[in-house]
Model the fold of this input.
Amino acid sequence: MENNYYVYAWYKIDNLEIFYIGKGLGKRRFSMSKRNEPFLRTVNTYPCAVRILEMGLSESVASHLEKKLISYYKRMGQAKANIRISGSGGDTYNRRTKEEMKITRKKLSDSLKGKTLSEQHVKNMRRALRQKYESDERKEVEQIKEKIEVLPKLQKEELERIKLALPKKNIRTKSEENNNIGFTGKKHTNETKRKMSERSKEFLKGNTNNAKKCLVLDNDKNIILSVSAKYQVGIWLHTEKGYGSSSRSAQRIADKYFKTNELFDGKYYFVQ
Done:
């Protein structure tokens, strides 16, 4: 027997992806006859090339190597144009249509009509099913036993994980404790409570130092706007007079003139 067979591979030139493995004689690797649809579609879509992987083989060795390589590249996500892993008939594969499948199923059904299974056949089927169910039950019992044995260990690990996840108690430093010694066990007097209440009411009314009444005066120092906070002056300047890119930027402009009490833009005085 002559050892003139070889195994070849078609691949895409751009990414070197192998999309087909085959065996052949002579110039079979270049031939486009008897090629399946995925092979022809790939060759016509991408720039491809072919190379010989192994040569000087007998037909049986070439077939064996072809199957091994197809299986190997299939696991790597390549050899997509090899529809079947088997070497023989790997080039062409006629997929049956739905109508052909229906005809095949009907022929099989018709061939079984009117036939009865022998008693021995029925016994064999029952024994096979019983063995299957027994093995399944045995596996399930073993899995349950494993879970029961592992359960205490899992519970301990779960408890440790929960302990680590719990927030730690707020431990104050000695300096913080010393700072709070003067207030421990003491209460506010009625006078202090009254002052705190008045202060809160003033804050809500906007009469605190942080929210003093703000005035806008014209060139003759006549009041043209009275608001309770500087930010309202910024809103007025931006929306009514068009100063600044935003009310915040207009407020920053006004802040400078609140401090200096100078005339702004020859038109306004800002007083707080």
